[in-house]
Fold this sequence. Notes:
By secondary structure, chain A is α+β, with helices and mostly antiparallel strands.
Amino acid sequence: MVTTMKNLNVPNIKSVKIEHDGFFGHLSELVRENVIPYQWETLNDRTEGADKSHCIENFKIAAGEAEGSFYGFVFQDSDLAKWLEAVAYSLMTNPDPELEATADEAIALIGRAQQKDGYLNTYYTIKEPGHRWTNMRDNHELYCAGHMMEAAAAYYEATGKRELLDIMTRMAHHIDSVIGPEEGKLHGYPGHEEIELALVSMYHATGDETMLKLAKYFVDERGRRPAFFELEDEKRHPDHHHHPLPEYMVNNAGLYAQWHLPIREQTALEGHSVRALYMATGVADVARETGDESLLQTCRTLYDNLVHKRMYVTGGVGSSANGERFTFDYDLPNDTVYAETCASIALCFFMRAMLQIEPKSCYADTLETALYNTCIAGMSLDGKNFFYVNPLEVYPEASHKNPDKRHVLPVRPKWFGCACCPPNLARLITSIGKYIYTIDGDRIYMNLFVGAKTELETSGDKVTLSVKTEYPNDGKITVSCGCGHYTLALRIPAYCCGKYTLSVNGEKYAAEDDNGYAAITRDWCEGDTVTLELPVEPHRVYANYNVRADAGKVAVRRGPIVYCLEEADNETPLPAVSLPRSSELHCEYVPDKLEGIYEITADGYIECDDGDDTLYRMTPPTKKPVKLTFIPYYKWANRGEGEMTVYVAEN
Amino acid sequence: MVTTMKNLNVPNIKSVKIEHDGFFGHLSELVRENVIPYQWETLNDRTEGADKSHCIENFKIAAGEAEGSFYGFVFQDSDLAKWLEAVAYSLMTNPDPELEATADEAIALIGRAQQKDGYLNTYYTIKEPGHRWTNMRDNHELYCAGHMMEAAAAYYEATGKRELLDIMTRMAHHIDSVIGPEEGKLHGYPGHEEIELALVSMYHATGDETMLKLAKYFVDERGRRPAFFELEDEKRHPDHHHHPLPEYMVNNAGLYAQWHLPIREQTALEGHSVRALYMATGVADVARETGDESLLQTCRTLYDNLVHKRMYVTGGVGSSANGERFTFDYDLPNDTVYAETCASIALCFFMRAMLQIEPKSCYADTLETALYNTCIAGMSLDGKNFFYVNPLEVYPEASHKNPDKRHVLPVRPKWFGCACCPPNLARLITSIGKYIYTIDGDRIYMNLFVGAKTELETSGDKVTLSVKTEYPNDGKITVSCGCGHYTLALRIPAYCCGKYTLSVNGEKYAAEDDNGYAAITRDWCEGDTVTLELPVEPHRVYANYNVRADAGKVAVRRGPIVYCLEEADNETPLPAVSLPRSSELHCEYVPDKLEGIYEITADGYIECDDGDDTLYRMTPPTKKPVKLTFIPYYKWANRGEGEMTVYVAEN
């Protein structure tokens, strides 16, 4: 089969200088100043009041340099990996010799904890040395290896230092010696996907074909019958007695971790949402590197289903806490939702992977939705508190007293025993430079609008693009284009409904449409300026009538930013509030609120009791007028505990 | 303290001859012909395809008449108890020598399974003979004893046979020797309430003061500090290591089983809803028998909170499946609800107990709501399939694919491993004769409108009342009154809003209002007839604006019967359907539908997609007119799997 699949480039993070004062400059600073140092202290168990991590201690014990036993989750090693990856991205843009020295020390420790045969996993090394690779379904060996491989590739790219890359190359070769299609090897794959995409990064960093071969093997093998995890389970329980499945695997064990069907037969993202989206990213990466059209088609199918039937308006994914999972089409409850921060981060990974195969603005639209709403809602304004679960409706008393909503926290807690989301957010924000552009020959696609100066390499030129913008707070994007003959393709977000203004050197320009991008092809000269104006006025968003939870309701958005009502600004109960279709949405900048927001206000109503406190009555409720005040969703829960809702009744 | 507390009489079931063709005549027949024989076969493990019960076998093993080990729940014994109780009620109205002989045999077996010291519980006798009374929190010894005591009192009343009564008297004395306030006894109480109300029944049957003393002790001791269950737990786990609480007890262990506070300090029904309502019934019974005003006040407080803040419009109770429990005020989700059949049955018990203390129509209104909606919805039209959970909104795909709604079954299954609801419903329906009247001196309160001929004893007369009615299908109730001087007080349901027509011997009568009853006092002569006409027209019901799940929605009711929309009659998705406030509700009898129903129809709307299949869009949805067809809620799910909703959007 002749493939025509593209493989678009992404600029190196080092070549993207994010504006210090811009949207992401500020977020990166929060991560650099708060998350990275805080996490290092936590990994070393030096954070007062935080759950014990024991992560560094586990590595020391595995290296024979400390006494004690393993403590933590089976995937505790990945915490250090994610920290190292975030450090690597941070060093690319903000060199910091002290931080680099700390990272080097940690890497040296990892090397000492590695076993002679290349194996690296502190849980098994300390606790079950004889039982490696006996429970790949539940015990995250490949997952931990994957995260450390991502860190290795990033740290090599950041510093040129090969130590971690070599460590993980040895681990990859060890895995290849144990797992694979050949007779005598385990025909297995990870119970939590991650290593597939990581092996592709390792392949890019090392050029070692073993990496790509392994990644492809994991993708191809997943879900084949007889199912590896069933055989593995039988081996662990030869007597077939009393080995109940975890509750979230009951009914269809394979669905939870996406081994219900071979990947090419899967038509929707199912099960644990982070697993599913790491899988999809790995599939896209392998498709791109191998030119496998059937895998690309699978990715498109999974994506189409996701954005048309399984994604919240905030870019959140995962409709149930039970298994942190996808459930079924149009099942998007707002108040029992999971919508894990990590899942939306994984959705960003998947979208970047798709943008590297085909420049379609829809992928960048989805990336933008997830990034500017659910992902960054994961972190408090001060960068010190984090959400795992990102609900679209919260009633604090329900979180405290109805066990079905126990997972829906009304305020961000400091840190978690399972420390997945904060460091994951750290590595996303510090690597934002990888999400802005994709380059296809001499066509430069601008996927995100980020104030930054970037050096790019097209097929013919080295080009510098300098973007000035307050986006998404303001819709004006000004690009100073460096010399060369190339196409600049600017994404026109779907919320514009095709309405935008584009000018080149001050003159209106009728751009060619390239898959949802406004494309300008010319010989660019120094000083050429492109100005794009996107309409970021507040507008209403309606969910498809099949979304049962949103029937009769409306959400408010401004540009890509989804808004919400909070108790701090509005009368309650919020479900008794309504926003008539005819009410105008007013927008105003309020500099001293939540570090400055564009606030949206409108005339609405709230039901009231008329002094009648009966539970059920035969007379209809009455309403009184109220002023409704909407704030950006990603800034909710920064003013103490209170009600919040994204959707409002429209009647 | 001088008490003025009343103690109203209830006629013996034997003296109530239910109309064969009436509402309850039909239901009783279903129970007699289906449930009672089916359950006996199941208890004996002779039902093909049903889960193994092993209940009779457990008794045989405990009696030393069979080999084997205990099987089933720790409360398996109670299945036989509930069957015997239903049999007793059935024998009172429909003598059946063959059934009575079967019951006698079972009772003899129970006698042989009883231990020499009076102890009766097959789980402990077979499985943990040395560990009686070591885990009263979880292991249901007192609960099982309570159910068998209820059966004993009922069977004695039905047949005059003392054997089971004597067995359970011995057990009660054994309990009294082990548990109580005296030094050297366990200062405990049941982890699942039930024995309190049962001991009061035993007290009535035997006159033995020990029964009432024990019941009062259990009520008074509950929730005191130091908490018995905490001390008991420490005794079981002296090392304090690794004895995690069941998940539903986490945070506030006492709340689940109502030992968070002493009973007189409790202000709302909390935790497991069946436990809570059995407790409330026992508290009311003890209040009545002892004249304890503080306990009565507690019952009133619990009742007020329940009906004003914690009960579904269908009389369902219990807002979360996690712990099958109450959650908090106004938390009444329709689609994740628990609303166990048993909990509404227990609510009927509580209301009858309250009606025996004070004749207030509100208690009978609540009884009627629970009975005619949630309780009888528990059984299929053919009497062969049963619901535990009675949701107000069902989407079958969600039940199958969203684990949060796994407990919400869209069709009634045949029977359950945990066989609590079907036999509980059987004993409620066969004892309906106990719910119709309460008698206070020479005042006869008619609480339910049931076609029946009843012999009653007032303080001065023996009176026969003969009621003819199609209620609740028709609002006309005709009472032929026997001779005597007495007051006939007919409940005027709250849904009438004070509108009704009352006539005596064909002439309009302006009745005195006695706590919501229309009271007629006179010297009645043979042939005197009272006719009450209640308006059972269809009407709308609105939930209090604090009920978040029902905001902007409306329910439809006719008389006490709550209606619902089913997929079999309506376009879907039902959440996209709306019923404008201005639409007229038409009502028509449809004889060949669901064994005959009064169907309600109205003009409504449904949202449609206009060919736009995007998930989120900026244009409002359009609506098209549809005809909405409502059926009585208690007859839902008798036509296969489909959507159902009680609440409909009103805009």
